[in-house]
C-alpha cells in the first residue's frame, strides 16, 4: 500500500521511522540503521525537510532530524504509517502492559516498507509478560489481519537491522 504511493524505499523507511513513534535521528545513524548509503539517506532527508515534513536541528556539529508535528499533514501521514504497520495499538498495549520494555524494533519486510502480511518485532527488556504477548498477538491478527512474530531479547546486541519504534 505505502510502497505504491511512495516509490523511494529510503523515503518509506524514513517516514516509518519518524512517523511511527516520536523518533529522531541523524544522517550516519540512519544510514547505518537502514543499511543504505549516506548519500541516499541525505537526499531523502533533504526532500522531506524541504517539504516541511521533517525538522532539522543542530546539536553541536550534528544535524538531528525529527517529524514536524506542526505540518498540516502530520496527522494524516502518522495515520497512514500506523495503518501500514498495523502496530499502533499493539505497541501502545505492549509498552503499557508487558513490563520493562526498553526498545521495540520492527524488522523484516515491514522494516523495508513491504506489506508481506507478517509483522516481525523484536522487544528488548527483562521479565516481560509473555502470556500477555500471546493474547495481544491474537487480538492484533483479528484486528488488522496480519500475523505477528515477536522475539524477546533481554539485551540489545547493538546490531539489529530494523526500525526502532519505541525507546532510544
TrEMBL record:
- At the top level of its lineage, which domain of life is listed? Bacteria
Q: What is this protein called?
A: PaaX-like protein
